[in-house]
Amino acid sequence: MNERPRGRRATIKDVAKAAGVSAMTVSNVLNGRMQFVSVATKKRVEREIERLGYRRQANARNLRVAEQRSIGMVIVDEQPAFLADFFTCQVVAGLANVLNGADFTLTVQGMPGAALAQSMIMRNFEVGGFCAMISGAAEARRESVQQLLELDQPVVLFQEKMELPGADFCVVRQDDRGAGRLVGDHLLARRVGDFLAVVPAQHWPAIEERLGGIGESIAAAGGEARLTVIESASESFADVQDAVARHLAHAPLPGAIIGGNDPIATAAMLYLFDHDIRVPEDVRVVGFNGFEAHRYARPRLTTVVSSAYALGEQAGRAMLKRLETGAFERPEFVLPVHFDAGATT
């Protein structure tokens, strides 16, 4: 492989010759135009840039920094109306406001898991890093994270317990397993022996953790109580009520219904009211997240208050610190939740 003349500063043409690509390909790598460059070619070009000591002119570097004053927010959700979810909205708002305060913009794109690899934000990104909220089975979620990391950009992942040593990666989540234990302990203290959890068919890591926490609470109390989990086709009012109706058509009333979130719990509670089943006298009802809407339910819903907005803020601060220093301060940030005992238990 030919080297540049001794003492002369390396040029784009030197890098291109060493990497066996065109000067335009090197320019695409330098400017983040990755829709035109494969991952393997990108890495080969970057190795030659490092080996030859190529340095861009100061004005070009400043231009690139300006281009990167944006963060990508990837939401892997099978539902087209992904921003209708209260939790997602709160996270995005907290993240956007922190970034806005630092003169960064936020680019948001939602898609089903199967569409992630070919999504525009993945193929044509001009961002300094990615934040991600990912649904699906655990193996599929991990694969989505790996796809993001292959872009060689820093990644902040929401609501997932995942360790990837050595990766440019950070997790921001709330203590959902602890939230589940709070719910379980509260109901067991009221001598509830039969729990019915209603969750969406679409898997979310936070809901998996909440169910795990309820199970731990039951086990710690001797394991005599029973937890039954049913899935609703979606989180919509009609689908939740249909799932509850189908279950209760062949099963006795549980001592408590636990919604995967507040809207699910409220839909289940209204189904009970419509069938002359009293809350909390006949069945206790608990939700999760505690956003403002839960206060409109009568009786007021017992719930666990989420730190969703603060999660977005924390992710924004973590990403900005990473871009400033070159490394994430911590691999994981875990925010607390607190129990809000309403009138439904």
Automatic annotation (TrEMBL):
It comes from the Bacteria. InterPro entries: HTH_LacI, LacI/GalR-like_sensor, Lambda_DNA-bd_dom_sf, Peripla_BP_I. The keyword Transcription regulation applies. Pfam families: LacI, Peripla_BP_3. The keyword Manganese does not apply. GO terms for molecular function: DNA-binding transcription factor activity; transcription cis-regulatory region binding. Keywords: DNA-binding, Transcription, Transcription regulation. Residues 10-65 form the HTH lacI-type domain. This is DNA-binding LacI/PurR family transcriptional regulator.
